[in-house]
Specification:
Rossmann fold
Length: 300
C-alpha cells in the first residue's frame, strides 16, 4: 500500500462510528489540544453529514455571529443535475444555509459566477430551489457589483472581483470534489474562479498559481468539501453518471489547504504531488500533512 492510499484509507476507513461519536485522531499530533484540524463525516444523507462535519468543528456558531451577513460559495458552474457531480450537491448547500440562520445570521446569500448560462445552472443543479427553501437569497451575478481590485498574489496582481464575496462577515467555500482536465482535480481553491469576473479563461495558462492567489485573497472562514458524489473523469463538467463515484463524504475545516489535501486523496493523489498544494504550502495557506493532523471522523 502506498502512502497516498494509506492516508485516504486511514481517514475514510476504520470501524463505523455511531452518530456524534468522536475519533480523537486518526493521526494524533503531539501537544494538540484545540479542536480538530479537519472533520470528515460519512453517511447516507448529504445534509446530515454536512451538519455532522460542521458540528465536529464546534458548530456553525464558531464561524457565524448573530446578526451577521453570510455568503456561501458553491460550485454552480454547469448545466448539470446533481447525479452528474459537476456542481455542489444542493442538500449540502441547504444544510449550510440552515446552520447559518440557526446560528443567528441576519442574511445568507448563495451565488456563483457560472460557466454555462446562470439561469440554467441555478435551476438544473437544484441549488437555487434548495437554498431558497432554506431561507437564502440566491441572486445572479450583477455586473454592476464587479470591481477591479488588487489581488496581491505572487502571479495574479489584480482582477475584477464580485463584491458580494467581499462585503460579508462570513464567507463559506463549499466546492465539490472533481476531476479537472488541466489541473488533475478541482477542489476549494479553484472554486474561487466563480467569485471573479471574466475573462477567466485567461487564468488557465497559470491555473494553479491563480487558484492559490485567489485563495489567499478571499480567505474563507470555513471550507466544506462536498464529496458525496465525486466526478472521477471528464471534468470539470462530466456528462454521464458513469463518470461519477458515490463516496458519501463531507470534509470541513478552517484550513483551506487541509481540505484540499484530503480531497486529493479521494483521487489517489498524494497531496505533496499536487502542484497547487506545493504552492499553497509555500504561501503558508495551511497544512497538507494529513498524517500529523488531528482528524475527527463521524459516521451518521
Amino acid at each position: 500500500m502506498n502512502r497516498r492510499t494509506f492516508l485516504k484509507d486511514a481517514v475514510l476507513g476504520g470501524v463505523a462510528l455511531g452518530a456524534g461519536t468522536r475519533l480523537l485522531s486518526a493521526f494524533p499530533a503531539a501537544g494538540q489540544s484545540a479542536g480538530p484540524d479537519l472533520a470528515v463525516a460519512q453517511g447516507e444523507s448529504p445534509a446530515t453529514i454536512t451538519k455532522a462535519a460542521v458540528e465536529a468543528l464546534g458548530g456553525m456558531g464558531k464561524f457565524v455571529g448573530r446578526g451577521s451577513v453570510v455568503v456561501i460559495k458553491p460550485n454552480i458552474g454547469w448545466d448539470r443535475t446533481p447525479e452528474m457531480a459537476a456542481c455542489t450537491n444542493p442538500e449540502v448547500v441547504k444544510a449550510l444555509v440552515e446552520l447559518s440562520l440557526e446560528a443567528g445570521a441576519k442574511k445568507v446569500t448563495v451565488m456563483d459566477n457560472t460557466t454555462n448560462q446562470a439561469q440554467r445552472c441555478y435551476v438544473r443543479s437544484g441549488i437555487q430551489a434548495a437554498a431558497k427553501a432554506a431561507g437564502a437569497d440566491v441572486p445572479f451575478v450583477n455586473p454592476r457589483r464587479i470591481k477591479k481590485m488588487p489581488i496581491g498574489g505572487a502571479w495574479l496582481k489584480d482582477w475584477d472581483v464580485i463584491q458580494d464575496f467581499i462585503e460579508c462577515d462570513t464567507l463559506i467555500n463549499v466546492p465539490i470534489a472533481k476531476h479537472h482536465s488541466l489541473c488533475r482535480v478541482t477542489l476549494g481553491m479553484k472554486n474561487w474562479l466563480g467569485a471573479i469576473g471574466d475573462p477567466r479563461n485567461q487564468l488557465h495558462q497559470k491555473i494553479d498559481e491563480a487558484s492559490v492567489d485567489l485563495a489567499a485573497f478571499f480567505k474563507p472562514k470555513l471550507v466544506v468539501l462536498d464529496a458525496y458524489r465525486i466526478l472521477t473523469r471528464n471534468g470539470p463538467q462530466g456528462g454521464r453518471p458513469s463518470d461519477t463515484k458515490l463516496v458519501k463524504t463531507v470534509a470541513a475545516s478552517r484550513d483551506a489547504a487541509a481540505v484540499e489535501a484530503f480531497g486529493a486523496t479521494l483521487f489517489d493523489i498524494n497531496p505533496p504531488d499536487l502542484p497547487l498544494l506545493k504552492l499553497a504550502l509555500e504561501r503558508k495557506l495551511g497544512r497538507i500533512d494529513l498524517e500529523k493532523m488531528n482528524i475527527e471522523k463521524r459516521t451518521v
